[in-house]
């Protein structure tokens, strides 16, 4: 039985809409939404499927869902905005803003290094608990005190979750606001969109419930069997804080406690429309808001890390700027004029300076390396443009 798709696609974007519809094939418990903004105006707004397979609740136009590492992109917008205001310098040591961070040989780590996954803090040396990760002060204390996992300056490794606390504490030290509050003040309130870093209680009932595909579960089960210390695996679990899949039926990022906490490496919650609108506002005035100047975009999207990480891994590899994920073999956008971030399970948000695009795709049916849903949609958009 085919899934009913609601919404609209402007003339010329029919192939994009058809590709979005095909993403639901043979996935009866999937919900998803796609929103595309061009030149500040919505050209695609589509949604369909199931927001919560436990009770059959349908996905709505404004259904928000956990966007996982897409949150890193949003936090990187905050940092880039501060750079544009002259309040933050990518080339300054983190310790200029956060003196405690200089401990254990990290005094030379720059803001750009930290945002580009080069701070040596991709995983905690000591196992953490759920109680730890919902406690902001505890997390930044642990990371500030920790010795890097590799000799600094020799490479990078993806800071899957820790990136958010490091970037978020830099932002907090500069603005005197939590990252969630600054995100609301600078971006979501002026734009009038549904996105949060730290979910309000009144939004819980309409938020999507997450499910993990069998292939993704099998991938992490295989990873967990590798010899210790398995730092990439620990980067996802933080020890005992999260399940390897990131969610269970009632735990991990399905748990209200986790969703309510400010976990800016992976815990953002957004509708597809909000994600696309935010990214659009980085490159073109959108709803009266323009977030970044071209010079700041150029500085923040200069390649900081690429290729194999210090812990190895198989290609394709991602490419990173100052927190932004750039076009690469691992995640193709529209080309070198695009910047954004994808997220675990299939989420994608990005902007493109050439085409003045803001893009958001969110789904609650989490898939692994076999996932081609957003990739196919972006390819259809690229062909359309």
Describe this structure in words.
This protein is α+β, with helices and mostly antiparallel strands and 385 residues long. Strands 1, 2, 3, 4, 9, 10, 11, 12, 13 and 14 form a ten-stranded antiparallel beta sheet that branches. Strands 5-8-6 form a three-stranded antiparallel beta sheet. Strands 7-15 form a two-stranded parallel ribbon. Helix 1 (14-22) packs antiparallel against helix 13 (373-384), helix 2 packs parallel to helix 6 and helix 5 packs across helix 6 (162-175). The chain has a single domain (62-325, 341-354), classed as DD-peptidase/beta-lactamase superfamily (Beta-lactamase, 3-Layer(aba) Sandwich), CATH 3.40.710. The mean pLDDT is 96. It has 13 helices and 15 strands. Helices cover 32% and strands 17% of the residues. It has helices spanning 14-22, 70-84, 111-115, 130-133, 136-145, 162-175, 179-191, 214-224, 231-237, 256-260, 272-283, 294-300, 373-384, and strands at 5-9, 31-38, 41-52, 57-58, 65-68, 195-196, 211-212, 268-270, 305-306, 319-320, 325-326, 338-343, 347-352, 357-363, 365-366.
Question: Brief description of this entry?
Answer:
This protein is α+β, with helices and mostly antiparallel strands and 385 residues long.
Radius of gyration: 19 Å
What CATH architecture do you see? 3-Layer(aba) Sandwich
CATH topology: Beta-lactamase
What sequence of helices (H) and strands (E) makes up the elements? EHEEEEHHHHHHEEHHHEHHEEEEEEEH
> Which CATH first-tier class would you pick?
Alpha Beta
Question: Mean pLDDT, nearest integer?
Answer: 96
Tally of domains: 1
Count the helices. How many?
13
Q: How many extended strands?
A: 15
Low-confidence stretches: none
CATH superfamily: DD-peptidase/beta-lactamase superfamily
Backbone structural class: alpha+beta
**Largest sheet data:** 10 strands, antiparallel
Quote the beta fraction. 15-25%
Helix percent reads 25-40%
Gross morphology is globular
* Separation, N- and C-terminal Cα atoms: 32 Å
